Amino acid sequence: MTDVDVLQKLQEAISRRGQTILDYCYCATLDHPKIRDVLACYDPDSDKAACILLLLMLYFKEPKESLMLEVDPCATAVDVNTEELPSSPCLIIQGDMMKPSGWLISIEGHVVMSPHPFFLHGVAAFFSSYYVFNLEYPGAGSSTLEFIQRCFLGINPERGLKRPRCGTQ
After folding, report:
1. What is the number of domains present in the chain?
2. Which superkingdom is the protein from (predicted)?
3. What is each CA distance from 118 to 7, 100, 104, 144, 149, in whole angstroms?
């Protein structure tokens, strides 16, 4: 639908632009305590893509819960509390966000993709679900998703936005 290999573009963006984002967040001019907390938890064993996604959400002042939910590392689709799931697509992280052991995806409060081990594949599937199902980005996570769409994937509509207009949900 997008005529873009989402996974490949995300991999390229994380390898080419990921360090720039990390460096920007490390710089002294960006004084945000929660960003500092994420950076303090980042180490060589951490998932760089997960760290960057968290940093983007914090930078845009969007709650992590608007796009993601952390569950037990061994949780299956049956174990996920569907009452906690938003109606919009949700990336369910198994284990610690910085070192996820796997992911699931929910849409409309139902887990639709079972556990998979590679985090960036989860981000690609999660992002693609908005296009596959022709869904608007949720208001609370729209800036992060727009950034991924435009800066990482190069999907730039000539007019209009994927996210809802201000004041609409």
Report:
1. 1
2. Eukaryota
3. 11, 8, 11, 20, 20
